[in-house]
Amino acid sequence: MNDRQSPAAPFTELVNLASRLLGAGVVATNEDTFADAENLLVAKPAEFRAHTFGHKGQIMDGWESKRRRGVSAEQPHPTDEDHDWAIVRLGVAGRIHGVIVDTAHFTGNYPETGAVQAASIPGHPSVEELADAQWTDLVPRTALRGNTAHEFAVTDPTRYTHVRLVIWPDGGVARLRVHGEVLPDPRDLEGLSFDLAAQEYGGVAEAASDRYFSSPHNLNAPGRATVMGEGWETRRRRDKANDWVQIALAGGGEVLAAEVDTTHFVANAPGWADLVGYDASHGGDPATDAEGWFELLPRTRLQPDTRHRLRLSAGRAVTHVRINVYPDGGLARLRLTGRLTEAGRAALALRWFNALPAVEAAQALAEAGLSGGEAITLAAARPLATPAELTAAVAALQPADGPDGTETSRRAAAVWRLLGV
């Protein structure tokens, strides 16, 4: 579970790492004669239109492979191990908390069993490199039912970049969803200003006062909303309170500017909005510590169907931001441009480092300047909960330090370059 997410929240409340909006794609499949594997990632629920036939049969909104056959008239049936597969590049790498394998509308043609595997393959691997990768079972081979959204919780703490859906012996799956915690490579964000609230960097809309018409997760989704339904909209209030959404940022940082976007909300935009921040880096809980919140943007008049670009005064670091709207209504997007603090960058880097596969962690340490043996030893000491634990693990590396402390200093400097702690 995302350590910034409410313990009671289901994994479906986390970001879909296999979203095309985030850049996900089907990069390889062994078979999709009946229906394209790319349909697995379509954002909207699968549809079925009876008696819509193409040259290959009923047109299905999903991935469907052809019927497998045996090797001869004497052996007409497929073997127990015959299977089909599709590999998905996640839009953003992260720790997977749950997957959904949805066989919607596949009733007489769904797979008998299925599995979901994952791999971490840095860079931009070829199909051949994907085939040679080490794949780990997230969901072991299990029985599937027709016309069913199968939800599988995942406890593997590793950061992955790709998943592979495997079905036995053949058949169709409508949709694949991969929900989890985004874990960007901190080296890619070094020194940059970016949208600290964005899903693609790890921002999570973790709480909201109301989600009657649409989800608060739309607020920090990629791109611009194309219709009102792609934003966040509340029901009409009949009391004197207000509505709000709370976002856990990608990391602790300083918010420099905000964009409050009411595009497409013409007759139902809020009248006003303000922003408040909270810094949980010292152990506070934004859900219970009402006194810990402080103003980032005073209550500001909003116009319908408008992108409001607002500069904020440089000031305190925040890990969470809450937008309050008065009294109710809808927003298309919220953008919070800023930069990570040193502490925020270090915390993000430590989460990333702890979740890397051992080989990748050791390679990253070696590239930062540790020897091969030191890198392997330090990678094996994970997980490291705090920068202090990391510092202690660095100091414990062998060989023993010399009288001038040069070995410890050299190793610490190498880790600092990588993790910023």
From TrEMBL:
Keywords, alphabetical: Hydrolase, Purine metabolism
InterPro entries, per database record: Allantoicase, Allantoicase_dom, Galactose-bd-like_sf
Occurrences of domain Allantoicase (ranges): 23-182, 202-339
Record pathway: Nitrogen metabolism; (S)-allantoin degradation; (S)-ureidoglycolate from allantoate (aminidohydrolase route): step 1/1
Membership in a protein family: Belongs to the allantoicase family.
Reactions this protein catalyses: allantoate + H2O = (S)-ureidoglycolate + urea
Pfam families xref list: Allantoicase (PF03561)
Coiled coil (residue ranges): none
EC number in record: 3.5.3.4
Protein name as annotated: Probable allantoicase
Organism of derivation: Kitasatospora nipponensis
Domain of life: Bacteria
Keyword Hydrolase: yes
